[in-house]
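Researcher: Please translate sequence to structure tokens.
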Amino acid sequence: MVQTSWRVPLRADGSRLLWRYEARRAGQTAGISPPVALLVALATALLAGNGGAGRQQIGDLLLTGLEALLPLAVAMTAVTLVARDGCRELQLSLPTRYARTLGRRLGVLALAAALSALLYTAGLWLAGWWTGPDLLASPLVWAPPTIWLTALAVLLGVLGRSVVLTTSGIAALWLSEQLFAPMLVGHDWTRPLYLFTTSRVGTGDGWLTNRLVLTLTGLLLVAAVVLLLRRPHLLLSEEEE
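Model: Translation complete:
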């Protein structure tokens, strides 16, 4: 009876300690990069307002921070969590799957991103600057592009095993979607996969379809990552091999 009564508390304490440890291993960047990206959006909107920009333009900039800057920051940070771990060889020799360890660290990043996005959205709404969809649907502004871009970043990081190549590829994709937005939203076959529909086009016809397609394809990318991580040697760089 005594042993049974202590099992749950000890297991819970161990879980909390494990998550705290993984949060420290993930580093300050995992907790800081999401709010910093949104602060950059706020600063840009403030500068635009001081420069004489109209309310609509300022609102678009604030929404862009949530839909475009946040996913980019999370994706770039995720790449560093995958590629820059000096203990991977040791981790891969342990009974616990490294995929679980990596998943917990990415979970710390995801939690920081979600909390930052929710606080940012609430702040804009309370200040009267929210220009997105209904508040209950606001997670659809940032969650689908964040899942999609981050999953792709992790997938490329595992396959390419290079921080430079992966971050360059993600940055090029992100920039291309910004530069060629009119062309991408102008074709039926590219519109459902366009990442920044809310801030570029709005929440009219096709917006919900776009969000659902991004979410589903993002989850497929996540599934591909999980399958690849069943082959642990893919996490090692050429030098580590």
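Researcher: Any highlights?
Model: Residues 1-12, 86-95, 236-241 have pLDDT under 50 and may be disordered.
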